[in-house]
Specification:
There is one protein chain. The protein has about 220 residues and is an alpha/beta fold. It is built from 6 helices and 6 strands; from the N terminus they run αβαβαβαβββαα. A 6-stranded mixed sheet has the order 1-2-3-4-5-6. β3, α4 and β4 form a beta-alpha-beta unit. The longest helix is centred in the last third of the chain and has 18 residues. The radius of gyration is 18 Å and the shape is globular. It starts with a helix and ends with a helix.
Amino acid sequence: MDRDFEYNWDAAREAGLLRGGYHFLRWDLTGLVQARIFSELLRDDPGELPPVADFEAPRLGSRYPSNALLEQFLVEVETKLDRKPMIYSSPGYWNIHGRNKITKNFDQKWAYYPLWVAHYVKNFQLGESKPYDMQPWTGMGKTWTFWQYTAVGDGLAYGAESKGIDLNLFNGTEKELNDFAYGTPPIDPTPAPPQPMDIRGLKKSVNKVINEWAKEQ
């Protein structure tokens, strides 16, 4: 968990930025456990953009990834937060791990979810550069919603603490972006603040769930 999550989440809201929860999937916990922890954190203030499941290479020493775990997470998050989540993945990784392990094809069910594609290109040109197509979205007449096109953007130019940052594009107009974010107009920069988050209590709950799960293995 981001140690500065509470501050960053509230500060982004006060600045009038569209926010969305983002979860890097772990392979040593079930999708249900991860989804419930993640949803509990966002329950009172889920943000404006859909929650995101980051489906990519596991950390060193983790179990082999399974897209069944991804599906568990997506279904449970939508149940808990009443919002369709988004899948974040790269074309190369998805081409291997996004397939049905029996048929070796891409199940159409994945196209139900919006796609955030991570495909870095050299010499990016706005309006000309494009990410690789990903199935089953392309085959079903759909395309990417967000595109992360670099991991070395000029952080200082955007007022970030890091010199290099990820940069992304939305596949549409500003109005379409605001419609995608719960169909609301741009955020009022001075809204009433949400209820304060009990980060310490949440961390204790997370550790308890992990410890209980580990004892059962």
